[in-house]
Amino acid sequence: MLALFAGETLRTEPSHNVHVDKCELNYLDWSCRYQTELNQRHYSAIMFLNDDFTGGQFFFAYRGNHTAQLTVQPKCGRLVAFSSGQENPHGVKAVLQGRRCVLAFGTRWTNDTRSYPTTRQGNWSNPY
Ligand SMILES: O=C(O)CCC(=O)C(=O)O
Ligand SMILES: [Fe+2]
């Protein structure tokens, strides 16, 4: 059953599909394709900037499917931080009403100062 409150839109598709920040997921076998790019993320964080909307929960998904394992209710000032690899597939449920604002951080912890190509070249590999 789906309850709809005043002003909400009927929307069920996620606002942000389940994904992994560090790599591109192949949804057929949930394997990861890594980029050898300097912008590859190691750690991610999301800061919620408001909570005057409905829906839009952040969730960590079970590996291998798109359902929520752990849901985080957006709250202004709340920070969710996690490592960016395959261990943390996540997404955002449908925003039903209002505007959802977040600040997304991505960090890369490495002493590696080599420069990497900024475009995908051939097969991707994980240098780490
Ligand atoms: O908006 C969010 O809560 C998550 C966004 C996200 O997962 C991302 O930018 O990679
Ligand atoms: Fe993400």
TrEMBL record:
Signal peptide stretch: none
PROSITE patterns in the record: FE2OG_OXY (PS51471)
Domain named Fe2OG dioxygenase: residues: 1-109
Alphabetized Pfam families for the sequence: 2OG-FeII_Oxy_3 (PF13640)
Lineage: superkingdom: Eukaryota
InterPro entries: Oxoglu/Fe-dep_dioxygenase_dom, P3H, Pro_4_hyd_alph_FE2OG_OXY
Any one Gene Ontology BP term: collagen metabolic process
Protein name: Prolyl 3-hydroxylase 3-like
Protein source organism: Branchiostoma floridae
